[in-house]
Amino acid sequence: MAVDIKTVAELRARTNAGMVDCKTALDEAGGDIDKAADILRKKGIAKADKKGDRQVKEGLVHAYIHGAGQVGAMVEVLCETDFVARNEQFQDFVHDLAMQVAATNPLYLTSDEIPAEVLEKERELASEEFAGSGKPAEVITKIVEGKLSKYYEQVCLLDQRFIKDEDLTIRDHLKNNIARIGENIQIRRFVRFALSSGGVE
């Protein structure tokens, strides 16, 4: 099936991929633009993984204040060059992260940062819920691991669903931006502030 230039241009506008890559993806997808976008996304994530070891020396510190100023967040995100740090797409990504932190209050960047004692406590609580249920041990183990995965989604920034597109995790959003921008990007740290009746949380 021949792919017309209008469809290629539409896919390019949607994904920011090159014209040749868009044409190749559309050929592979039989002209289906949604399938082609998914192909490009998967290829982009693969490319992003290859960039993960490249050194990051530049970046941006960005603050976001929500609503009437009662909740705010600050993030530090690193990239390879000052050129990208000044790039609008990179800055939009950093802003998205600050909004995410303000909205969801993650406690850790990844599950690797969760203290062992906290993780063990969560595991115990999940196990106790099914104690005496009569379910086989292997079934309980799977249920507990599933509950831990849900816990990671709540408290780990990279595992959270992106508030602007819940089909993506923040990890997906990060990899997509690495692929589109063409540089390694790392989230270094973040902090959230909120007013409470007793002062700042």
TrEMBL record:
UniProt GO cellular component terms: cytoplasm
List the residue ranges of the region (Involved in Mg(2+) ion dislocation from EF-Tu): 81-84
Q: Which organism is it from?
A: Candidatus Uhrbacteria bacterium RIFOXYC2_FULL_47_19
Name by which UniProt lists this protein: Elongation factor Ts
An example Gene Ontology molecular-function term: translation elongation factor activity
Q: Which domain of life is it from?
A: Bacteria
Q: Which SUPFAM superfamilies match?
A: Elongation factor Ts (EF-Ts), dimerisation domain, UBA-like
Query: Could you tell me the keywords of this UniProt record?
Result: Cytoplasm, Elongation factor, Protein biosynthesis
The gene for this chain is tsf
Its main localization is cytoplasm
